[in-house]
Amino acid sequence: MNLGIKVLVAEDDPNLATILKAYLTQKGYQVFLATDGQLAIDYFKQEEIDACILDIMMPVRDGFSVAKEIRRIDKRVPIIFLSAKTLEADKLKGFEIGCDDYITKPFSMEELIARLNATLRRSFDDNKPENSIFTIGNYTFDYNRQLLIINNEEQKLTAKESELLRMYCVNFNQLVERVTTLQKIWKDDSYFAARSMDVYITKLRKYLSKDPDIQLVNMHGIGFKLTSRTPSKR
User: Fold this and answer.
1) CA distance 32 to 196
2) Regions of the chain where pLDDT drops below 70
3) Cα dihedral angle (2, 115, 70, 63), rounded to 10 degrees?
4) Which end of the chain is less congested by CB atoms within 10 angstroms, N or C?
């Protein structure tokens, strides 16, 4: 049931880290284990993480620092803190940073799984697209099926192509800044992520070229705007 869901676990205690990874893997999650805070951030930027389980007391960067960096990149990904700290002030700090749950040690694995599943359900419900089918000039874009259709011809899109095109459809005829797109979809605004984004933009322009009225316009290097010479409905 959880196959393909990527969970970042940041825990420097080797015994607990091993247990957490083994248990979550057994439950079908794909686990990325970080033994310090900086490694956790590196994993988050490299992978499309669906949920984070963060110990607070870690070397290099603590869990609070890691969560702040993650929240700068992604406002919605579920974050669960694990901590031996039981003071109310520590819990309040965790929730102020933006965590979804705070579990004090010791805890049972069953409790952790229950809370993880609950936060994932809330996250997936919150992120369900309000619109899944868009009309773009003569094209129909089916986000859920990852299909771009024109004249009964179907172009299958990758997950990233679909996410990128949906972002421009939702913000049709509006500028979407590059940094916003990179942080939302790539979770990284580095030079290499920006070059990768440019490759995807080129692909989308090629897919949309069969309707000359549709344009994906580069707005002076600031970002892109999907627009049409004729009225288009979403």
Assistant:
1) 23
2) 1-4, 123-131, 230-234
3) -130
4) N
Give the pLDDT score at 89. Answer: 84
Report pLDDT digits (tens) over 133-145: 899 999 999 988 8
Domain boundaries, position 66:
6-126
Residue with tokens 């899944």: 132
pLDDT at 16: 95
Residue-level pLDDT at 15: 95
24: CATH: 3.40.50.2300
CATH of the domain at 181: 1.10.10.10
Q: What pLDDT, on a 0 to 100 scale, did the predictor assign at position 118?
A: 84
Q: How many CA atoms are closer than 13 Å to the CA of 18, on its beta-carbon side? A: 2
Q: Which residues, 6 or more positions from 107, have their beta carbon under 8 angstroms from its beta carbon?
A: 82
- Domain check: are 53 and 103 in the same one? yes
